[in-house]
């Protein structure tokens, strides 16, 4: 709309206690295309403004109940009103009257008698100014909403958070219910957001919904970025409306932003929605790439680890590997279970420092070295000495932690050698305790002490883990280890215990978590006497573990 264009029809409130001039002014405004509401007092005028849609007020000054100046002042100082006001008076025509009227907020001041064309032109001029300002303010509000939505989308940690941010942003921009569809690497996610600020409802959606939308909308996208859609085309259980699609590049699945409105959005709103959809498509691509790389890294990581557990009579075992929530590189956490020819079982839990293919490569080499030295008949401490030699020779600037447990169920003994790793937690009739077995991490070149040998009398469960399970920056490491030691579910079966520990200790961690639980399901074969017994007063303090990768 240019300055020469007449404004679209408006609702004009004409306030005058004299019927004749009120009728004349109202007639001129109606003939120019406006709809007119007539009242005769200031109180009626304020009530009309509160009760119905009014675009502009033509206000007499000399009203019987409230001065027109005071009515204007109340309109302009009430945040809920703020309507444009044109004073029209046949009595208050002095310069000081005009000055007071303008000082108290009037947008124009006319004296009666006035030419019909002057009244209409003044009303139209004030309307053009207010509507242009309102459009600018609305555009600024929509762009601010777009900016907030873009920040929320770029900061979304999951696809569900992303699709919810898109739908909520569309609602904030348009003020009507909205639906967003965002494809991920594996699924199509939908968010339906109500008007009024309620939380979006996120759910899965059949992939065919997006396929049908692409066919429906794509035909007109070159000339018309928005296309009318039905509730069924949006996946059902949502309102029909208007949709825009956007993809970051050819061949990539698009995102869909739809607003539930019977009227076509204005061109300005469509442009803002297109920008929202474009930003959503870029964010969706980033999430899709992250998911693909994360799944690839997880598959690669798990391919490095044992694919099955040995089936040993009288023992039940469970193992879990949980990748870090941040980053997509493979880590250096590993575990190994080796059934030796003489029936003993060697359990290894280690962690190579870093997250990279390089760290994973070192992890593979150390894991295979452990297997080779164990099959050659070396004990846990001798294996650590040899692994130290391998690491120092081939990877002089790399470090790792490693804990080795050798279980002899026939003799009822447990040999433990530890190189800077969290100590194993044993659970039995006397409660839970960490095995006192400490030593320097691998790679620092320090000697490794002999293994600790302990009786398995009364022991029912052994828990091994990497530091990712208990490390949490706001929490002291000793406090975290003590919390694990007294955790109430330690008597659960291994599978259930792994799930419970990961649910309470392993969520949202910045490091990988490897967890191994072994439990005796039959009677212990331990014989009386022999080496140190685990349980009574042999519980180690968490502070004895002071070196880790």
TrEMBL record:
Keyword Hydrolase: yes
Region feature (Disordered): 526-549
Response regulatory domain span: 11-127
SMART domains linked: PP2C_SIG (SM00331), REC (SM00448)
Domain of life: Bacteria
Database matches in InterPro entries: Bact_Sigma-Reg, CheY-like_superfamily, GAF-like_dom_sf, PPM-type-like_dom_sf, PPM-type_phosphatase-like_dom, Sig_transdc_resp-reg_receiver
Polar residues composition-biased segments: 540-549
Keyword terms of this UniProt record: Hydrolase, Phosphoprotein
Name of one Pfam family that matches: SpoIIE
Name of the protein described by the UniProt record: Fused response regulator/phosphatase
Lineage per the UniProt record: Bacteria, Bacillati, Actinomycetota, Actinomycetes, Pseudonocardiales
